[in-house]
Write a structure and sequence with these properties.
Length: 268
């Protein structure tokens, strides 16, 4: 008879399953399927929890630094290094998260993507190359439109917080008197910070052959747009105020921006 506690014949016959040989092409296809939704899932994590956005940015930065192009190469394009290809795919995924240019993206998407891209621009030069001059210009145009969509121009100055008189004109009410001045939506701060970083990457005037300056109309629109934001939200926090000052400082470093600033007339 079989001794107590001894393994049975059937039990000893059962072992770990044997893995069959997988061809290289099949393995690459399996990895491709696994990576296909990796970036959207990573961004969704940042959208669901604002505190997780730094983790998402760190993850995206790690993807960019890898020497191997995780998602392959773009068809019919010159060969690029792994970081350049990975940066291209990361930027493409982030822009896809923002949706169509004419529509205001959801607040969570806008805050997450702009913070992630701003972080990457600061740390990974491949991201700026992946955007390109035309892409940066287009993105600045979209950010400008979205920042203006944060303003409801039908709101009266009194409701915004301009309830005191200073030198014959309306001025924001002090914080201790009555209702607080109107604050800006939280996502607007990250949009302004990202816009400032993009503006630092472009030429405001033509400095050398082969490179074009940022469109004159877009520069003027940004100056007036930032001033509209400043007037629209007298209760803005310090982060947004600093970002607005940085954008205006950058744009007013050339004659066009300075003149537009001096000629500005509030619409509110």
């Amino acid at each position: 008879s079989q001794a107590a506690g001894a393994p049975s014949q059937d039990a000893t016959a059962v072992g770990p399953p044997r893995l069959g040989v997988v061809a290289l092409e099949e393995f690459q296809a399996l990895v491709g399927e696994m990576l296909e939704d990796l970036l959207p899932r990573t961004l969704a994590f940042g959208r669901s929890s604002p505190k997780a956005v730094p983790v998402v940015a760190e993850t995206m930065a790690f993807f960019v630094t890898l020497a191997v192009p995780l998602w392959g190469s773009e068809p019919n394009s010159p060969p690029k290094s792994g970081p350049e290809e990975n940066a291209r795919v990361v930027v493409k995924a982030c822009l896809a998260e923002l949706g169509e240019a004419g529509l205001l993206p959801p607040a969570d998407s806008l805050a997450c993507v702009t913070q992630v891209l701003a972080n990457l621009l600061h740390r990974r030069p491949q991201v700026a190359s992946a955007l390109g001059d035309d892409g940066i210009s287009e993105l600045l145009g979209r950010l400008h439109r979205w920042s203006l969509l944060s303003i409801n121009f039908c709101v009266l100055p009194f409701r915004r917080g301009y309830r005191t008189i200073c030198l014959g004109s309306a001025a924001p009410v002090p914080p201790s008197i009555g209702d607080a001045p109107l604050a800006a939506p939280p996502w607007l701060t990250s949009v302004m910070v990202f816009a400032h970083q993009l503006l630092c990457l472009v030429d405001l005037v033509k400095l050398q052959e082969g490179k074009t300056a940022l469109a004159v109309e877009l520069q003027k629109n940004w100056v007036t747009g930032v001033l509209n934001v400043v007037y629209a939200f007298p209760g803005m926090d310090s982060g947004l105020a600093l970002a607005c000052i940085q954008v205006l400082t950058r744009l007013c470093s050339v004659q066009l921006g300075a003149r537009t600033f001096l000629e500005y007339q509030p619409r509110l």
